[in-house]
Write a structure and sequence with these properties.
Layout: H1 2-21, H2 31-47, H3 53-73, H4 83-89, H5 93-111
Helix pairs in contact: 2-3, 2-5, 3-5
């Protein structure tokens, strides 16, 4: 019983200190976060004339296909998506290239650059 008490006390102390200094838990980035950010990014580029509607539609198809793959694989956290998953999701060079371009753009969005 006392072992658990020490751990619980540390948790309470941490929570109070974090609240005092204004620290917030960081949410683990998910596929949904990335998809929403990328959709917003595409809308912004379209609105300033830097993205054609046909290109946007191709990206949307790619995003939907990749999302279906992720759902089937039960992958939602971005940290679990890497080159092997991209390669498994799409075998053709053209689609793989498109996925890689999408993920590079998404990575830039996620890092704040």
């Amino acid at each position: 019983m006392w072992r658990g008490f020490g751990k619980a006390r540390m948790t309470i102390t941490y929570a109070r200190f974090a609240d005092y200094v204004g620290a917030k838990d960081r949410q683990v980035p998910t596929w949904n976060d990335l998809r929403e950010a990328f959709t917003t990014h595409m809308e912004q580029r379209r609105n300033i004339g830097k993205l054609q509607g046909s290109t946007e539609e191709r990206y949307n198809v790619t995003v939907r296909e990749f999302e279906s793959f992720l759902i089937a694989q039960k992958i939602m956290r971005l940290q679990d998506i890497g080159a092997p998953q991209v390669a498994e999701a799409r075998g053709t060079a053209r689609d793989l290239c498109r996925f890689q371009r999408f993920l590079l753009t998404a990575n830039e969005l996620g890092s704040g650059h």
